[in-house]
Amino acid sequence: MAKAEHNNVTLGMVRDSLIRQEDTIVYSLIERARFPLNPPTYDPSYASIPGFSGSLLEFFVKQTEAVQAKAGRYDNPEEHPFFPDNLPPSLVPHYKYPEVLHPAAMSININKLIWDMYFNKLLPSFVSPGDDENYALTAARDLECLQAISRRIHYGKLVAEVKFRDERKDYEPAIRAQDRFTLTNLLTFTNVEEAVKKRVAKKAMTFGQEVKLGDDGDKGKYKVDPAIVSGLYADWVIPLTKEVEIDYLLRRLN
Ligand SMILES: C=C(O[C@@H]1C=C(C(=O)O)C=C[C@H]1O)C(=O)O
């Protein structure tokens, strides 16, 4: 969402941004699926990088996040690092982002959960087994997927703030009671969730189809299985977004 809009943000505008972020997530999965699993990327014994202990993937993510921190990426409240400890300070002029969120939002970062989900559940489900030795590109594609999914899930903070402002009289008692169950019921819109799951499957079919001139291409052959994309949202993206919404709301009156 453009920087200037946060002051008078509506739920419709936030949802429009979530819809646009679906494109980024689907495309990032398609681009990662160009490579097989490439296990050495994740094997600490493969890399043996001087002065670094860990896998090539971890090296790539930590180094990239350090550069992006210096460029100011994490001054943006919509961005969350996977390795927040010891990140270098920004070296660029500070942009004053509109202060829309409650300060407690700063303490919410569930990227450890997202990391585990991505590498243990999602990745093996949508890439082919095998090794083409493109480990650096594989790591780069993984990070693009991680960052897109993380941004979408942590957008739950803005969703929660807008819902709170729209219906403060309903949310305040549940927040004061620290009542997760009632908060979950207040913030859940099943119809919206169902539309999201259907739309991301359709985007995976549309963006991931084999396009051939002449005939109408291979029906039913996609770069990433649309059911896997829809399942990602159903099992992880939507539940974790709601978790972020609840975590934010529980702190909203602090
Ligand atoms: C993000 C929202 O909050 C909840 C989470 C949703 C999601 O992650 O797609 C959709 C609807 C709600 O149940 C919203 O209301 O738009």
From TrEMBL:
Enzyme's top EC category: isomerase
Enzyme Commission number(s): 5.4.99.5
GO MF terms held by the record: chorismate mutase activity; protein homodimerization activity
Pfam family, one: CM_2
GO biological process: amino acid biosynthetic process; aromatic amino acid family biosynthetic process; chorismate metabolic process; prephenate(2-) biosynthetic process
Keyword Signal belongs to the record: no
Predominant place of localization: cytoplasm
This protein's pathway: Metabolic intermediate biosynthesis; prephenate biosynthesis; prephenate from chorismate: step 1/1
Chorismate mutase domain segment(s): 139-245
Gene Ontology cellular component terms for the protein in this record: cytoplasm
Catalysed conversion reaction: chorismate = prephenate
InterPro entries listed in its UniProt record: Chorismate_II_sf (IPR036263), Chorismate_mutase_AroQ_euk (IPR008238), CM_AroQ_sf_eucaryotic (IPR037039), CM_II_prokaryot (IPR002701)
Superkingdom: Eukaryota
UniProt keyword terms in alphabetical order: Amino-acid biosynthesis, Aromatic amino acid biosynthesis, Cytoplasm, Isomerase
Compartment annotation: Cytoplasm
Protein name, per record: Chorismate mutase
Gene source species: Gossypium hirsutum (Upland cotton)
Record gene name: LOC107901662
